[in-house]
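My current task is to audit a protein record that another person submitted. Please read both lines and tell me whether the tokens look consistent with the sequence. Do not assume that whoever made the record got everything right. I have pasted the whole thing underneath without changing anything:

===
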Amino acid sequence: MIIVFGSLNMDFSISLDKLPVAGETVLSTEYELTSGGKGANQALAAARFGSKVALIGRVGNDNYGKVLRESLKSNGVMVSGVAYSDTLPTGCAMVAKDRIGENQIIVMSGANAEAIHDQVPDEILIKQNLLLMQMELPVDQTVTLLNRAKDQGVITVLNLAPAIMIPKKALGHLDYLIVNSIEARQIAEKLHLPTGNSALKLAQALAIEGQMTCIVTLGSKGSVAVTKDGEAWGCPIMPLDQADVVDISGAGDAFCGTFCAAIHEGKSLPEAMRLASVAGSLTCLKTGTQAAMPFLDDILSRLGDMPPAEKLKL
């Protein structure tokens, strides 16, 4: 089973001709309410790949919270571990997207701020399971759960987004770290690691520091990964006609959820990267995040269009 300790948000998606700069007011005639939150998105991506997934988190005791839970439940995600808050409303996010698919996101944590590690019982922290986390829940609770999971031999994966610093010791409790190139540089600089201009060198520095596998996603340039043993891989994205790209907001979460599902299934690192890249690419062809998450059949049907991951020299 995949355990996701993560956020649930109601997303207010706003369509704009262009994104505002600081101090600028722009008008829009179009917005949409959709289910979101990095934890929920990644849990759904893993479930659609075919994994058994339990989401642990917290929502407000309001209509948004009920809608989010029911939507995930209807898509095969176990939500009995998603508790209700009596004091805070359901988390929300404002997602502004321009006509070429670029976005700006502001997240209001709401009930996510009350999620605690004790919501994950010891009984499911077993070696056969995988724990996936992000950084939209309280850092101390995320780190405590990570420590508990590592003590029990659970495979641990952290998508360090947003790039909030965690204790150096906690990095050593990870099996996999997933970051984009901006997050990788921010974390490396905070750890006073050599950065340079190479994503591969960033991945290597973080992999050595935490003695784990670090995957750096590079948007349209694909992803690179370096293991603690110094093995390096590069994986492109699935070729897309740019005219068909409508929304890139779900790509990162689709990558993370699918990657974890593939690893949990026993796929090798390069094959998991390849499957995750197809999933991320496919979400760009639809509007929204959770609604755009592909099913396993969708991924497999396009796998032939995806070049294999390539072994790289460090």
The mean pLDDT is 93. The longest strand covers residues 53-60. Residues 2-18+31-312 form a domain with the UDP-N-acetylmuramoyl-L-alanine:D-glutamate ligase fold (CATH 3.40.1190.20). The radius of gyration is 18 Å.
